[in-house]
Amino acid sequence: MSLDLATTRRIAKLARIGLEEHELEATRQKLNGILGWIDQLAEVDVTGVPPMVGTETETLRQREDKVTDGNSRDALLACAPETSGPFYTVPKVVE
Amino acid sequence: MLTGLTLTQARAGLTTRKFSARELAQAHLDAIARLNTALNAYITVLPEADVLASADAADARYAAGTAGIMDGLPIGVKDLFCTKGVRTTAASKMLADFVPPYESTVTANLLGAGAVFLGKTNLDEFAMGSANMSSAFGPTTNPWKRKGDEATALVPGGSSGGSSAAVAAGMALAATGTDTGGSIRQPAAYCGIVGLKPTYGRCSRWGTIAFASSLDQAGPMTRSVADAGLMLEAMAGFDAKDSTSSNRAVPQFHKAVGKSVKGLRVGIPAEYRAPGLSADVVAMWEQGIAWLKAAGCEVVDVSLPHTRYGLTTYYIIAPAECSSNLARYDGIRFGLRKDAPSLDGVYEATRAAGFGQEVRNRILMGTYVLSAGYYDAYYLKAQKVRTLIRRDFEQAFENVDVLLTPTAPSAAFAQGENMDDPVQMYLNDIFTVPASMAGVPALSVPVGLNEVGLPLGLQVIGKHFDEETVLSVGGALEAAAGFTHTPSIHAGAGA
What we know:
The structure holds two protein chains of two kinds. By secondary structure, chain A is mainly α. Chain A contains three helices and two strands. Chain A has helices spanning 5-14, 21-38, 73-77, and strands spanning 83-84, 87-88. Chain A has a two-stranded antiparallel sheet. The longest helix of chain A has 18 residues, at 21-38. Helices cover 38% and strands 13% of the residues of chain B. Chain B is built from 15 helices and eleven strands. Chain B has helices at residues 7-15, 21-39, 48-64, 105-112, 161-169, 185-191, 225-235, 279-294, 310-325, 343-354, 357-370, 375-396, 422-426, 433-438, 467-481; strands spanning 42-45, 74-78, 116-121, 174-179, 194-197, 217-222, 265-269, 298-302, 402-406, 442-449, 455-462. In chain B, helix 2 (21-39) runs antiparallel to helix 3 and helix 5 (161-169) runs parallel beside helix 6 (185-191). The radius of gyration of chain B is 21 Å and the shape is globular. Chains A and B meet through helix 1 and helix 2 of A and helix 9, helix 10, helix 11 and helix 12 of B.
């Protein structure tokens, strides 16, 4: 499968990476080179083979449903690039 | 020479009070001050007063007889492990000013065992790379040089290239690494040190900045195989905060080194005799086989038929997981922010400015293989092939105890080489990726120099949770090889 410019633009949008128009073509070529190489997987017969999810060395466990952490508001907000009082800030989304 | 010791030797010297933890720490701080400009192995060096205070606390524990297994040992920490109150960058502009409010489990375990942290070592951005060229803080230079060509700067391997260069050059007794597709083993081989990727689940991933969660695994980078065992004991252990953490008991790994390997069955996978393998690597592999035979191992040919699909499978699964993990860098809660009039605009501007090219490309590739219409053809297919790769190993291990392969297809290459074609760069990991896909433990041991004086490593791959046999065989290779070479740039050279 090969990637066209419209698809490259679409995945950049999905990934929320703002690529300039002139970067799109270079990106398309790089990704296409990798995809061409990856296409050799087509020759592997996987009929009846289950997908491997994680490395399956441990089974998932349940934990007690209780609070083990918390009251870290100020420490966490201190990592934010912009805050307002006890809040994260974002541009206005509703006019 | 305090900067040339193994962990084991340093621990003995501290125990007998031949030298103090403060002297040991000071010697390393001096070496870093002298060499880091040339090598760029550390992104952040901790303030001298803090390092010496940790060393003094270790000295007090030695005096009180309460020293832990890593007590007073100065080490480097890959800048992918969150360290409380110490900037943690992942070598990315995105996290250039990120100071975590918590400590990763692995580094907390090491601190609990008494280790003294010197600083945060350089890496490929978000651990994505094989040459340490993608760091936003500049590349790390390999302390080794080609014989007669001191001018050409070589790569230390990647992604744990700062860790491997620091340990090789005497700027830390050991360092932590993380390995997703070879990021501990390949740089260890390129810098002439030991690197161990434990079984997936041995070391907690909590607080380690995520790249590909089903593959990421922390491990030690050291100067001896016994040191790797010792340091893994300190790093490993069950952690309720990581859902994939193993609750198996942590053995005294270092005791496996020196154990007889007589009668062990060593598999040589036919598929690793890949085209493009350099002649010096082939010769070293043959030498390793001969050494293990002489030590009493039985060498048998085995087949891992899906080896050639390891890398391609990896370059679907790792980017897919990376695109999901790195979605968290949105400019809102932590890290870099670039302002724009809309919320989507903030995301797009932040992520375009914060991520370097290799990281961007991997996120885009991952987004593509997970997107509607392509998921089955790429991602689901890759997960199925991954099952086949794991079965290859399980079938081989019905017959043999360990596998012996080269760690990398060549010795370290020059900075700037392999940069234009990503596939060419990815091929450096051809021998390390399959063990990562299967989740089995693998060790790289330095065994000799090639004709231009660069170190070469051999890889020992073992069964799930059988690091001990891997370490025993690695110890036998180490004893036979007697690798004592040091690189051109070294704390002990010309001092």
